[in-house]
Amino acid sequence: MRAHRVAITGLGVISPYGGNDTDFFERLLAGESAVRHLLTDDVPRPLSVPAVGCTGFDPEALLGKPLALMMERFAQLGTAAAFLAWAQAGLPRQPEAGDETREDWGCIWGTALGGVAVHERGHRDMWLKGRERLSPLSVVQGMNNAVNAHISIQLGLGGVSTSHTAACASSGIAIGEAFRRVRSGEAAVMVTGGSDVCQSYGVVRAWEAMRVMAPGDAQTAPSACRPFAADRAGLVLGEGGAALVLEAWDHAVARGATIQGEVVGFGTSCDHSHLVRPHREGQVRALRAALADAGLAPADIDYVNAHGTATTEGDPVEISALREVFGDGAPGLAVSATKSMHGHLLGACGAVEAVVTALALREQAVPPTAHLAGRIDPACEGVDHVLQGRRGVPLRAALSNSFAFGGSNAVLALRAPPAR
Q: Which of 92, 147, 207, 310 has the fewest other C-beta atoms within 10 Å?
């Protein structure tokens, strides 16, 4: 079976900044943090943590009221992002009569939490408010595959429709599997990405119990997430959705689509050593597998969007893995962790950061790791940390890392689009 080049023809993101993909990237280039202080009125103990929310997101405006009411928020975020990517790809929402080509097109999505908020709300309604019955929509709103199901229905996609759940690597794996299907010729077009909403009361409390969440109040919250910094204090949970339309290169060219970038490789591995403690060798294997799959050498990579969560244990392990893979070239390797600005979206972070990486290649610019200047942990040195946004940088290829609890590692290799 002939291998097909895989073009990115659509990028969509629902982010805390609002606007389109260009607006999103410009805010990141400027080093603008979207982290705010979240204070709730929960009983018996309110939440008071730094967090990232898409406060300007209007699901009814982007999806229409009937469809929006069918969905939990994680599905609204994901489906809206997919619609934006689909529109950028220049494809009509529904196939024309008699057009059977979409019977082979599909959707693969990633989410770590899915509709956990639905079940938490149901628990509160029954145990705290005394309700005897829940909404009949609870099951379809809460299922993890709700996003890919809605996308497939709305866009008329008759091929594979499935979701991946692998903690923070969920959407990285989803994109990689969608890439493989297009490259193999199994599908000419795939919609892929991820979405998650991480601010449910029980979710936040669970992460607090692990002692890996950054503290902060209304004044200090914007700088709470400081990946690779000596004084980093933990991760900041966020929400959002991001989507990519992947398309066989010849198919995209034949219909005159604008190519936003190219996915060229995908590498996975399992640390198989510890449930929550990252392992350098597992990450090294995933990085090398992505490079080998792409047919690229370390010297061909100009930028890495790091997983970089700002945890004391995870950050040095990732930098150590990059030093191992890139060897003598590591000191010149541009690395940044954009979670410092948009937060950690758990199962959606791989998709959001793949979009960031594609935009970096498209715009020939590198976003920074915010709040890092003058603070780099000596254990995280050895690469070229991007402290301020860089424009006009000649970027040929880049990697996007997703390293998850459970030891699941996913690395995507992307290449810049043709010059326009």
A: 92
